[in-house]
Amino acid sequence: MDDFSNYCLPNPTLDAVTAEYATLEQELDIALASPNPSDDALRAVVGKWDQIRRGLESWSNLVEIRFNQETHDPDFKAAQDYRDEIAPKLTELNVRIQKKLVETPLRPRLEEIFGAHAFKLWEVQNSTFDPCIHDDLVQESKLVSRYNELTASAKVEFQGEEYNLSSISKFEEHADREVRYGAARAVWQWFAANRVELDQIYGDLVTLRHGVAQKLGFDSFVELAYRRMSRTDYGSEDVARYREEVREHVVPLCREIHRTQEDTLNLEDLMFWDEGLFDSAGNPTPQGSYEKQIELAQQMFNDMNADLGKFFQLMCEKNLLDLKIRPWKAGGGFCSSLPSEELPFIFANFNGSKGDVEVFTHEMGHAFQCYSSFDGAALLEHVWPTYEACEIHSMSLEFLTWPHMELFFGDAAERFRRIHLLTSLLFLPYGVAVDHFQHAIFAEPEATPERRHAIWQEMERLYLPDTNYGDMPHVSSGGRWQQKRHIYMSPFYYIDYTLAQCCALQFWVRSERDFATAMQDYVDLCKRGGTMPFSGLVDSAGLKNPFKPGSLKEVVQQAREYLKL
Question: Could you tell me which residues come within 8 angstroms of residue 56 by beta carbon, excluding any fewer than 6 positions away?
């Protein structure tokens, strides 16, 4: 692939893929039935399966990327619908292969060749699928797409201009309080106007996901969701204890931060629309044009690490960055990949705020890890680790780029660093609130929309006790959660960010003491990819596991010292 903008892949036909898998199964059965197959024979047949998967995943990811780039394009929407229709069947074909590999008496031999972690992942993943849920999975994908289309199509009028939900977010950091208030009110008026549909979509998703869990033999969707997230080394009890650690050690610190914020901004009461501003002069914003910022990013990565610099140059040359905001483009940011090309892709929505730099360095962390792990990966499972481990690479790179922030913010760089640390700490209670909310929702799958909004308010009282919405419509009655895409689109994928943030803050501390060592530790962690579960990767990098008592206490103390709190 020379240029992603011209890259295309044909839609696979289900008949052709099914036939290809039938041949593969025969070859695998022969290899596994052999009395003493060679390692090369086993590598060959499993490798053939892996190549098929890489091609299909590249196509699937490309379809999703194109749809997110232009959600109104009928061809991209049709391709997305086709992908969603055949995805459960492709999953079924993969599960058949995985079961053979997991259940064969040759498994110990295979684990020596490919590592034991992949087999644990397959065991967990196999329990999340059965042909009986085929239609449910198709319907789930359609509901997720509907939420994505609805939020991407939002048009918010403010100060005589029309914005989408991504572009208007820049006003969250505006120095003028009335502007912040007006922009926030306009956003939440849109959510209020669409509350009925948003409630309906989520209600349908909860009912559907709970039903799927029951069909698969689980008591609730929570257990199924953990397995969908490929969590092999911890469970909901561990996460609950971690949430308590956040309540005990981080929530009090965040309350202090809010009081400091009030003093800094000279406010009598810190309101919801004030929370994004940390300086009365306005939060720092990146300098220069988009093109200049890309040029500076290249300089930064060159100085940080030779491999990182070469990688970013490659991303630019092949147009593997879609960072500019535009109408009909889906919100948010993400990193995807094209396994058959061994390349990642970055999607974001630059709006002129400091968040552009944060999101960009975050997604670059994902991309660099992905690219680093492709080299020598015998299986797709070795490329991406599980999600909470993935987020260590992204969040840590945000902190590792700190010494170069003068390039983007000039003499406001130190203000940026301070604000970045403050927002990283403030994020932790919000992140665990989103997670706890989802646990509570699926404990009451038949709850009314009103009850779901009340549950969110319960979470705010636990983790976000200072938040004051005033007369802000919708959000003041418990609707804030509807802005969080992960709740609709990627259930239970949010605690991962908070777990990774705990690790990333440790990388920050390490880099403050010895940047070269911290950077090398980071690069080495990226190269390990998905060869280990979360806890193994954390241990391999010499980081303190967030599930262990005291991990947050130490991080909070170090942050207090830096912030002089």
Answer: 12, 17, 90
